[in-house]
Design a protein that fits this description.
The complex is a heterodimer of chains A (268) and B (389). With 268 residues, chain A is an all-alpha fold. Chain A has a domain at 62-236: MetI-like fold. Chain A has 12 helices and no strands. In chain A, helix 9 runs antiparallel to helix 12. The longest helix of chain A is centred in the N-terminal third of the chain and has 33 residues, at 62-94. Chain B has 2 domains: 5-109 and 185-256, P-loop containing nucleotide triphosphate hydrolases (Rossmann fold, 3-Layer(aba) Sandwich); 269-386, Nucleic acid-binding proteins (OB fold (Dihydrolipoamide Acetyltransferase, E2P)), CATH 2.40.50.140. Chain B has 8 helices and 20 strands. Chain B has helices spanning 75-83, 125-135, 140-153, 169-181, 199-216, 227-233, 251-256, 261-266, and strands at 31-42, 49-60, 64-68, 90-95, 98-99, 110-113, 187-191, 219-224, 236-241, 244-249, 271-281, 284-289, 294-298, 307-313, 318-322, 329-338, 342-349, 354-360, 374-379, 384-386. Chain B has a 6-stranded mixed β-sheet, with helices on both faces. The chains are: A mainly alpha (268), B alpha+beta (389).
């Protein structure tokens, strides 16, 4: 009958079970993490009543405040720089006549997505430690540079997608209507590209905010970001304070991802 | 930005206010655009695709000039060269006597109506129309009054604040026109602008375009592959094929006096008859047709063309007569196709060549001819046109 007309994976035996199991495996630990963020007691396993005490405690923790601020500074700087670079890269790879090696250029831009993070991390550690010795500079610059580098491909993808779906004749029409190349870019290309740029920025921001591996390797002493701070805490006494921080982090990410979704879905 | 003076001011083109006159004679014969020996090769100079091959044409001021040809004939390439979206491999393009071939599009007082309209989707109708004026740096008051005038010209005042995806295809077409006309260009280029519209709307816009051209007094260069559109709208038509202009002339000249087989074949229906030609006067040949008769035929140009030649005869420039009466050509009636306003009689001449006669229908019974019957054809005086090849 209906099932014979076309193959429908949802009708296969066991599909519902596998699907439900996958969702549980993914979201149950997170749900537990969020629940225990509100535990009144000190335990991550023993429920002792509802309380906001760990949120308050995290909020008042100077080290957490410090790490949060640092995370945000790095993420904002890295996202701004990466988005600018990605915008230019996207323009350069879509707004030219096809040339030899174009595919190679795409690959070069996107390769950081494939390279194991640990490799990048070790490589940066070696180079940056050398530079630190030469220049004596050990500020946030290293972290910002590193984050910018691995954020570029994330920012590049939505911007390029947007550019490729844009009608090229619009820029030709602008030139026909006396717009110099710069004005055509400023008044036509850029406004139409805005949703892609915002999406790219948010993606880069979240990716930077979340990074542990490269940050852990590159950071100097006392340069903990929120994720590396949390990692450090787990090695010591674990309290639901970690859950509280993670819960806020999670909420924040959900907001950003939702905004990203709405932004990319909305037509101009 | 340093624009030549006339870019930023009205009135560049002489304006003929009031009613549009159909006759081309009252207009000046001054040349607006001179295309001189233009060649365009895409790709390598020797092995690339030769889109235009030493094309020359003069487009007069205030005329409705149409580039007509099948797709791939180079008509759009020529338009893009005039607009500045492409640059010629060889040759010059003069605008009012000045070589513009090397100028970028934003330095040319020429605007384009695109096939896809290319309206800016993030701007309102009014902002689309004012875009060119703002880029030219016109004062705000002049921009406002021009936009208002343009909105009125294309009857889009109520839609001024809509985004361009909130209006219909026909309305988008009007906005595209208004946007291109607003800067009062010396020449307006139109790249198959009506091809996306349905039949009825296309007919309306054909009349609308003629009206706009008359009211603005701007030279229109119109690209189309639709021969009927070209015949009804143009002052002059250039028929193109394979990167060359084959013939330039008024619609009547193109239709009645085609000089090449391609032109005769591409525009309307034509009968081709082979024969032996003798010179019979100034631009006049006497052709002894293989099918029998000897006819006077207009020569395609001043050169003499004795010898083998092809003659074109339009189906409506001949009458079908009974087979037993006097006739220029005789043959067998193979098919009768009724078209409402007229009837097409498909026949095979005695020497095996097909021939079509088109007869206006009159009220009453049928034509009186039947399939398989022996029939004759009487050619109208002046019906035969000798072709170049």
């Amino acid at each position: 009958m209906a099932g014979k007309r076309h193959f429908d994976v949802r009708r296969q035996p066991g599909f519902a079970f596998v699907a439900m199991f996958s969702f549980f495996a993914l979201y149950l630990p997170m749900a537990l993490l969020v629940v225990y963020a509100f535990n009144a007691g000190d335990s991550l396993a023993l429920w002792e009543g509802f309380s906001f005490r760990w949120f308050v405690s995290a909020w008042q923790n100077d080290t957490v405040q410090d790490a949060t601020l640092r995370s945000v500074i790095i993420a904002v700087c890295a996202a701004v720089l990466a988005t600018s670079a990605a915008t230019m890269a996207a323009l350069a790879t879509t707004r030219t006549r096809p040339y030899r090696g174009q595919t190679f250029t795409y690959a070069l831009i996107n390769q950081p997505l494939m390279i194991p993070e640990i490799v990048t991390a070790v490589a940066l550690l070696i180079v940056f430690s050398r530079i630190k010795v030469w220049t004596d500079y050990s500020g946030l610059g290293y972290l910002i540079a590193a984050h910018t580098a691995f954020c570029v491909p994330f920012a590049y993808l939505p911007i390029r997608a947007r550019l490729e779906s844009m009608d090229l004749s619009l820029e030709v029409a602008a030139a026909d209507l006396y717009a110099t190349p710069w004005k055509a870019f400023r008044y036509i290309t850029l406004p139409l590209l805005r949703p892609g740029i915002i999406a790219g920025f948010m993606l880069a921001f979240v990716i930077s905010l979340d990074d542990v591996v490269i940050t852990e390797f590159v950071k100097s002493g006392g340069q903990d970001t929120l994720p590396t701070y949390m990692l450090g805490q787990l090695r010591r006494v674990v309290t639901p304070e970690i859950n509280a921080i993670a819960t806020v982090f999670l909420a924040f990410s959900v907001v950003i991802v939702t905004a990203f979704f709405l932004m990319t879905r909305k037509k101009t | 930005m340093a624009f030549p003076d006339r870019f930023d001011g009205l009135p560049a083109a002489p304006r003929c206010e009031g009613v549009y006159k159909v006759t081309g004679d009252t207009r000046g014969n001054n040349v607006a655009i001179d295309v001189l020996g233009v060649t365009k090769v895409f790709g390598a100079a020797d092995s690339g695709f030769r889109a235009l091959d030493k094309v020359s044409a003069s487009i007069r001021q205030n005329e409705f000039f149409t580039l007509l040809g099948p797709s791939g004939c180079g008509k759009t390439t020529l338009l893009r060269l005039i607009a500045g979206f492409e640059f010629p491999t060889e040759g010059r393009i003069l605008l009012d006597g000045e070589d513009i071939a090397a100028l970028p599009p934003f330095r040319r007082p020429v605007n384009t109506v695109f096939q896809s309209y290319a309206l800016f989707p993030h701007l309102t109708v009014a902002k689309n129309i004012s875009f060119g004026l703002e880029m030219l740096g016109w004062p705000a008051t002049k921009i406002a009054s021009t936009v208002e005038r343009m909105l009125a010209l294309v009857k889009m005042e109520p839609m001024a604040d809509r985004l361009t995806d909130q209006i219909s295809g026909g309305q988008q077409q009007r906005v595209a026109l208004a946007r291109a006309l607003a800067p009062n260009p010396r020449v307006l280029l139109l790249d198959e602008p009506l091809s996306a519209l349905d039949f009825k709307l296309r007919k309306e816009m054909q009349i609308e375009l003629k009206r706009l051209q008359g009211e603005t007094g701007i030279t229109f260069v119109f690209v189309t592959h639709d021969q009927e559109e070209a015949l009804t709208m143009s002052d002059r038509i250039a028929v193109m094929s394979a990167g060359r202009i084959l013939q330039v002339g008024s619609p009547r000249e193109i239709y009645d006096r085609p000089t090449e087989r391609f032109v005769a074949d591409f525009i309307g229906e034509t009968n081709f008859l082979e024969g032996e030609a003798k010179v019979a006067g100034d631009r006049l040949l006497e052709v002894r047709l293989d099918a029998g008769a000897t006819v006077k035929a207009t020569a395609p140009d001043a050169a003499l063309h004795a010898g083998r030649t092809t003659v074109a005869v339009r189906p409506e420039h001949a009458d079908l007569v009974p087979g037993d009466g006097p006739a220029d050509l005789t043959g067998v009636l193979k098919n009768i196709v009724y078209f409402g306003t007229d009837t097409h009689f498909h026949m095979t001449l005695d020497n095996g060549v097909p021939f079509i006669v088109r007869q206006q229908n009159t009220p009453g019974e049928g034509s009186g001819f039947s399939i398989g019957e022996q029939v004759g054809v009487r050619l109208h005086a002046d019906a035969a046109q000798a072709l170049k090849d």
